[in-house]
Amino acid sequence: MKAVMMVTKLVVVTRVIVLVMIMVMMLIS
């Protein structure tokens, strides 16, 4: 169970980072 929670947290964090990167790229360009 703990492993699943860790994986889900990592997936959420990576998705947030990707969204932030896209926002930054849009703002720059």
UniProtKB/TrEMBL annotation:
Bilayer-crossing regions: 7-28
Keywords: Membrane, Transmembrane, Transmembrane helix
Protein name per its UniProtKB record: Type I toxin-antitoxin system Ibs family toxin
Source organism: Gongylonema pulchrum
